[in-house]
User: Which sequence fits this backbone?
């Protein structure tokens, strides 16, 4: 066998496991979703080709538009706050020794818990009668059934879950900054807020990009916690897009329309992530 | 041997072991010479009764092994639909809303499988519930009976209310004719919540609709948005607004709130079904009893829901499945469900075992049966019914919270339900 041919064959043989993985677990599901989006099916009867009917129905569905807005608002509440708090926690914990390790684990504990379990516990905490918060505040507040408070309540739980996880990345980022750079900054008077503003934040830009990008993606896919806390209520005020998608696929038994929603959500997430990438790519990167 | 060769061999061995473990775990007993039939249910508390029944079946039918699969109620309907779609559903499964499956040809025709005379011994309400287009699609297992009121005798005594007063109580939009609300007002002096008016489909909403003279559906279209429906729900919403029932903020998202409040001695009257009887009997730390629900303008009407076992038409063991179905519908197989008071067997001749069990424990369960004398209200059904309930739920939740006027909420809910059915 010709050496070039053998080299190419070897390359493809080495690539094969990855190609199989990508094909089975990425490309095939995407193809199935696109195929489903063109069909009408109730999961029990025969499947019917309906062309773009599902697309027309979903893109004209005000409820789906409402869910997208709710998701964007939730993301806007959760991501900046969890990033800022995570950064603050990391700034406090990065310099500590053994105690810092314990604290980092403690902060990350909520993230390790099953979202549904977290939702159930917080549902009790938020309960107007017999709930921990009502007992603590000494007054009855209907957190999860109030149209005004329900979404911030859900956001608060998500922030509580994610802060420790975000902090772990910032701690790693801060520790990767050479001590000389920070020492030099300190000699030049960069302490306190100046140190944060002019040293840490610029040097942590790659970490910041990662945390923001994954934060947005995670917030957009929020489902379990909302399902356990409010099931999208009251009156759809917490009806995030993943809830709508789930409801469409399994409650209404219309996987075709759910597939369209999945494609739309993917497109929105892709655009947001691409924009974030462009923003951070054009900023200075540092090499130590 | 090179390190790389060792690694490759190690990986290959691991793969072989994993595949072997998967095959061993997934074995279905075919190799044992017995046919394995799987029965899917959603309630853990029924496992022991079914096991006892099926053990007897297996002794008489040594060529068949029946295994019970437990799928929690919260995910039961969705998982069943997906499994049926994927062709991996169990041979037999509990069902209450079966119409989509029947219409899609996924269920065994019981008349054909067991003969038309099989239904003669079953509760007629249950047979009617699972008959569609003249065909019976499932073997009834148990009936809930009607709704009744569990009362806290201690709280009633403290409020000076005789349990006998409950039997004659009447709810009405006309204050002069309403004798139920005055009782609740008296009970309010001793209990934080006298009663459980709430978004409880079977035990509250249906009985009030029915006793107001309304129906949930007519010809598989929703039909409750009318003056009778308004009267029923207006009454319930006012009970909540007046503090005679817990806030909907507590009960809308927590179906157990009222039951827990009753068991904690904070609720005087808890209107519910026989499905809560065992729980109350085990956990109530006070004297309690059962009474008839209040009469409405059209009498005392309750729902009477049943659960049945359906046969999977795609079962790879149709004959074994048929034999198990026949056993579960027989008096001998069905009576196990009532022996320990868990539920009311669907075989009418065996319903006495349920009454006897509770009589031995000093509980008169007559109200669950007597309430059905005036008539009953259908719990609805039809293709798309579960989706319709989901669509209506948030609107009714807002109504119970007092944020939507009753008449417009019912109309909106009805329209949303019908739209869901149309899909």
Assistant:
């Amino acid at each position: 066998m010709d050496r070039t041919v053998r080299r190419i064959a070897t390359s493809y043989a080495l690539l094969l496991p990855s190609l199989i993985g990508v094909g089975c677990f990425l490309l095939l599901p995407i193809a199935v979703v696109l195929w489903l989006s063109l069909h009408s099916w109730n999961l029990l009867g025969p499947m019917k080709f309906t062309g773009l009917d599902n697309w027309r129905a979903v893109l004209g569905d005000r409820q789906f538009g409402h869910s997208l807005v709710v998701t964007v608002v939730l993301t806007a509440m959760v991501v900046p706050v969890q990033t800022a708090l995570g950064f603050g926690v990391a700034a406090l914990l990065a310099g500590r020794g053994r105690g810092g390790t314990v604290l980092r684990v403690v902060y990350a504990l909520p993230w390790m818990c099953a979202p549904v379990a977290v939702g159930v516990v917080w549902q009790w905490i938020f309960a107007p009668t017999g709930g921990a918060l009502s007992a603590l505040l000494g007054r009855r507040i209907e957190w999860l059934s109030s149209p005004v408070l329900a979404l911030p309540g859900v956001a608060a739980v998500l922030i509580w879950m994610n802060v420790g996880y975000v902090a772990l990345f910032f701690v790693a980022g801060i520790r990767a900054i050479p001590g000389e750079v920070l020492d030099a900054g300190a000699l030049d008077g960069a302490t306190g807020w100046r140190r944060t503003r002019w040293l840490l934040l610029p040097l942590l830009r790659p970490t910041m990009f990662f945390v923001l990008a994954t934060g947005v993606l995670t917030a957009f896919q929020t489902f379990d916690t909302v399902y356990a806390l409010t099931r999208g209520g009251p009156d759809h005020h917490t009806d995030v897009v993943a809830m709508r998608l789930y409801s469409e696929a399994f409650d209404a038994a219309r996987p075709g329309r759910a597939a369209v929603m999945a494609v739309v959500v993917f497109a929105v997430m892709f655009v947001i992530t691409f924009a974030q990438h462009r923003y951070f790519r054009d900023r200075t990167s540092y090499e130590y | 041997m090179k390190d790389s060769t060792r690694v490759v061999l190690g990986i290959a061995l691991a793969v072989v072991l994993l595949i072997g473990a998967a095959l061993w775990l997934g074995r279905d007993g075919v190799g044992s010479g017995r046919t394995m039939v799987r029965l899917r249910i959603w309630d853990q508390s029924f496992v022991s009764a079914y096991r006892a029944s099926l053990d007897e079946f297996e002794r008489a039918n040594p060529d068949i092994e029946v295994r019970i699969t437990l799928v929690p109620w919260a995910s039961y309907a969705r998982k069943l639909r997906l499994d049926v779609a994927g062709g991996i559903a169990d041979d037999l499964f509990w069902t209450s809303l079966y119409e989509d499956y029947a219409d899609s040809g996924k269920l065994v025709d019981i008349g054909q499988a067991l003969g038309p005379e099989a239904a003669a011994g079953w509760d007629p309400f249950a047979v009617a519930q699972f008959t569609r287009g003249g065909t019976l699609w499932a073997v009834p297992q148990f009936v809930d009976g009607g709704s009744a009121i569990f009362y806290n005798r201690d709280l009633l005594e403290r409020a000076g209310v005789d349990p006998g007063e409950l039997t004659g109580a009447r709810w009405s939009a006309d204050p002069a004719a309403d004798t139920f609300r005055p009782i609740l007002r008296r009970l309010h002096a001793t209990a934080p919540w006298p009663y459980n008016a709430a978004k409880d489909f079977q035990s509250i909403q249906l009985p009030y609709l029915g006793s107001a003279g309304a129906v949930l559906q007519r010809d598989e279209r929703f039909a409750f948005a009318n003056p009778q429906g308004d009267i029923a729900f207006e009454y319930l919403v006012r009970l909540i607004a007046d503090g005679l029932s817990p806030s909907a903020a507590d009960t809308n998202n927590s179906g157990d709130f009222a039951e827990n409040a009753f068991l904690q001695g904070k609720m005087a009257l808890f209107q519910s079904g026989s499905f809560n009887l065992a729980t109350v009997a085990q956990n109530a730390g006070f004297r309690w009893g059962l009474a008839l629900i209040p009469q409405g303008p059209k009498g005392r009407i309750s729902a009477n829901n049943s659960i049945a076992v359906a046969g999977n038409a795609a079962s790879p063991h149709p004959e074994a499945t048929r034999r198990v179905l026949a056993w579960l519908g027989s008096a001998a197989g069905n009576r196990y469900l009532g022996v320990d008071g868990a539920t009311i067997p669907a075989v009418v001749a065996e319903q006495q075992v349920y009454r006897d069990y509770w009589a031995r424990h000093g509980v008169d369960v007559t109200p669950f049966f007597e309430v059905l004398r005036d008539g009953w209200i259908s719990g609805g059904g039809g293709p798309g019914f579960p989706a319709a309930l989901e669509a209506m739920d948030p609107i009714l939740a807002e109504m119970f919270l007092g944020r939507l006027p009753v008449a417009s909420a019912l109309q909106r809910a009805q329209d949303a339900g019908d739209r869901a059915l149309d899909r």
About this structure: Chain B has a mean pLDDT of 93. Chain B is about 45% helix and 10% strand. The interface with chain A takes residues 78, 81-82, 84-85, 100-101, 103-104, 106, 246-250, 252-254, 257, 384, 386-387, 390-391, 394-395, 397-398, 401, 403, 420, 423 of chain B (CB under 8 Å). The longest helix of chain B spans residues 3-25.
